[in-house]
Amino acid sequence: MEIKTIKAAVVGCGAISDIYMQNLTERFQVIKLVACTDLNEERMQQQAKKYHLQAGSWQEILENPEIEMVINLTNPKAHYQITRAALEHKKHVFSEKMIAVSLEEGKELCRLAKENGVRLGVAPDTFLGGSIQTARYIVEKGLIGEVLSAVVSLNRNFDIFGDILPHLHKEGGNLPFDCGCYYMTALASIIGPAKRVCGFARLHQPERINRRVGAPAFGEKVQVEAENIVTAAVEYGNGVLATVHFNSESLLDERPCLELYGTEGILIMGDPNRFESPVSVKKMLGETLHFPFTHGYTQNARGVGAAEMAWAIRQDRPHRAGMEMAFHVFELIHGMLISARTGQFYELESGFEMPEALPAGYLDNGFWGPTEESALALSDGFCLFSS
């Protein structure tokens, strides 16, 4: 049966666009990428030529009735404006993380998507990759018993990263939003929605100088707008307790930590920003064993959330990287900062239905094996195609 593809356009041709465009043109069959746009004309033309796309204005994309989906790869402060315009033109949107900058913006985008009867999907979609899907498989099969607690820790050096990507110093671009969302989304996809959070935060060195020779802002003063060291305790709806630590003022060498502690073992997940991060299980008095991947997409598969959403649109079923879970994680991170600023617990208002796990066994192991994309086209074990 012929696949009824969805024509899509990319908005934002920056650094992350390359892997998206590569995957959306070469890896996923359900999406047909046809156009791109960017305020930087040279960058837009370069990507359009490389991936055989139509370069044009944002307005042309909005007014093109054949383009059903917009892939929003702009910087965080532009997410709201771009996504809102696309939703108002009744186009489906898959947005890079996170959904917006402010909570009110996020709420409005979710409302607009519902009102206009279109889909809104939001990265990170690494939770659909082999690493986190395998971790979920381990938990759901009871291999570490009942999960009771979790530990999250991430360090980076935004003094260096911020010289390259100035939006990291802006509101909505600090470490909990820029990279912490991978960790909190991974937890959400495995253990569900959070109930309340207590946070602590500080802003270290709010004024600094761009030291990167060759950067447009070299030598200029930079103002850091948001807290860059954040710790929190999170209580999940199912009783799981998590401790969270984000520090963007430490070493460039990351020491990612994402672990779940169960009554019968410990699950060590590694870096949720990677699709191929190893997954290990520690049992009582035994060795720590690397667990074989049960799912595909163990290489950089950014865009898999958009592809899975396209399959869901054609099959008229919920998509997995949905706006409800994305907004909940967004609210949870905001809750950490609100709690830190007010000195009170933050009670979460949003919730979400756990996304269905991808079916296991669809690994990328050659022509005679099951294909990875087949997993995206399956729901409850059945492949549903539109007639």
Summarize the structure in short.
With 387 residues, the chain is of the alpha/beta class.
Description of the structure:
- With 387 residues, the chain is an alpha/beta fold.
- The chain folds into two domains: 174 residues, Rossmann fold (3-Layer(aba) Sandwich), CATH 3.40.50.720; 164 residues, Dihydrodipicolinate Reductase, domain 2 (2-Layer Sandwich).
- It has twelve helices and 19 strands.
- The strands form four sheets. Strands 16-15-14-13-7-12-11-8-17 form a nine-stranded mixed beta sheet. It has a six-stranded parallel beta sheet with strand order 3-2-1-4-5-6, sandwiched between helices. A two-stranded antiparallel sheet has the order 9-10.
- Helix 4 links the parallel strand 4 and strand 5.
- Helix 4 runs parallel beside helix 5 and helix 5 runs antiparallel to helix 11.
- The radius of gyration is 21 Å and the shape is globular.
- The C terminus is likely disordered.
